[in-house]
Design goal:
The chain is mainly α. It is built from 6 helices and no strands. α2 packs antiparallel against α6 and α4 packs antiparallel against α5.
Length: 123
């Protein structure tokens, strides 16, 4: 905590500090990941996660078939399918990261707005 945060904390009373702590506390990675599936954009993240799981399952099946067949052409065919679906699953999962970062930035912005509002109300 830097000196500005200490000065702001000293200027707040207990009720304001409690509200600010609730908004401003850092969330764990698990809490951030779960919060992706709530709110306005939650439905889209659910669809993206479902698509990820389907592609991953198809990729696993194709990889299993790749190792089970003996013909070289079939091995290449199933291997390319496995690679395609596994990479697609990874890309779908990475698609959730910008939303995670945006939520972090919005949370920090809300905390800053709350601090400014509370300090303006004190004056």
């Amino acid at each position: 905590m830097d000196t500005l945060d200490k000065k702001i904390s000293e200027a707040l009373d207990d009720e304001d500090r409690e509200i600010l702590d609730k908004i401003g506390r850092d969330q764990s990675y698990t809490e951030q990941a779960v919060s992706l599936f709530r709110g306005k954009g939650g439905w889209m993240n659910w669809i993206l996660m479902f698509t990820h799981l389907v592609w991953f399952a198809v990729g696993i099946y194709a990889a299993w078939k790749c190792y089970a067949v003996t013909d070289v052409v079939e091995v290449v065919r199933w291997g390319l399918l496995a690679a395609f679906f596994m990479l697609s699953a990874v890309i779908a999962k990475v698609g959730l990261l910008p939303a995670l970062q945006a939520n972090r930035v919005l949370r920090a912005l809300k905390r800053l707005e709350m601090q400014v509002a509370l300090l303006a109300a004190k004056r």
